Amino acid sequence: SQQGEEDPQALSIQEGENATMNCSYKTSINNLQWYRQNSGRGLVHLILIRSNEREKHSGRLRVTLDTSKKSSSLLITASRAADTASYFCATVTTSGTYKYIFGTGTRLKVLA
Amino acid sequence: DGGITQSPKYLFRKEGQNVTLSCEQNLNHDAMYWYRQDPGQGLRLIYYSQIVNDFQKGDIAEGYSVSREKKESFPLTVTSAQKNPTAFYLCASRNGGYTEAFFGQGTRLTVV
Fold first, then answer.
1. Selection from A35, A36, A44 nearest residue A92 by Cα
2. B98-B58-A87 Cα angle (round to 5)
3. Quick one: pLDDT at residue B41?
4. pLDDT mean across residues, chain A
5. Does B90 contact A42 at a Cβ distance shorter than 8 Å?
């Protein structure tokens, strides 16, 4: 399977704390994306980082990418109860066939 | 409003019956995708289509079929050959280039 892996599988923090989740993947990529999924709903795109970028910010989100280690991390700062969701990374390869390969996800619970 | 509409939200099927899940988008996107999600799991690719009248198998295509006769529609049929069809099914689309996916709200299929 080409599916990537994320860790931790589950994370529980207090409101106001930072949450960090990691993603590892297996193939060469064009870009890596992070998505959020609320329980029983579809996925929502959060941020995209290209293979030639090392860090990207969007509001309270910070994403890093290390292509030599085939890994990425998502940092959510000053978390809120509304951030409670599952977070997935998805890679897009350079093979010419454009498909998204998703990781296994991190379930984040932010306690008020 | 532009978006992707999946219907129905919940679907019950008797064993041995085929069932078709609907996915319609009015975003004018060329590419469309079907993913399967099992409880606590990541997304696995069933089929994808880069353009009308063309589609390719994903990682878990056995027991599923699709058609892409119109740009806005990409229905998925779950056949009786699919041994374990109970799952959450997600449809997505993409505009051209190396960009993000837009997801529908999903269809939860239960075999009874």
1. A35
2. 60
3. 82
4. 93
5. yes
